[in-house]
Amino acid sequence: LVFSLSNFAQDRPADGQFKSPQEAANQGKADLLEVLKSGxxxxxxxxxxxxxxxxxGKPITKMALNFDKLLNxxxxxxxxxxxxxxxxxxxxxxxxxxxxTVIEVKQGxxxxxxxxxxxxxTSNDLSVVLAASNNAEIVIYEVPxxxxxxxxxxxxxxxxxxTSAKE
Length: 167
What we know:
Elements: E1 3-4, H1 21-36, H2 48-53, E2 55-56, E3 60-65, H3 67-71, E4 83-95, E5 98-108, E6 111-117, H4 120-132, E7 137-143, E8 148-155, E9 158-165
Parallel strand pairs: 3-7
Antiparallel strand pairs: 1-6, 2-4, 3-4, 4-5, 5-6, 7-8, 8-9
């Protein structure tokens, strides 16, 4: 379950733009906390207590793969050669090094904005990938037409790939 563009918080800058992805993620955290504390019976994979204790982790680039480039990818060493457009940036919200949820942010012309709240599947996947890769540099690839996500971790100048197929 993912929430998109929230208008819950009152503390946003007038233009809704933040100076960094972490600042935007903190606003998203506040928005999601307000939803969780609203009394609605929601199961989004994180409790209000977990979220209140969470801190933003290192922002992770999310890219679409270009399907035509992907189909013609032969003898390649990297999925970077099939990159398409940049998507939102994913900021993992961490408690004791474990991803409890994610906040998606997007860079606009005047700064960063909150683009999405929550994401149980991405949160679970990132917890596993970050642990397996010793918190390496991560890029998330959305694969068009295949309903899957590929996580690329760069460790010691080597790319490791993890995937999670969506039902």
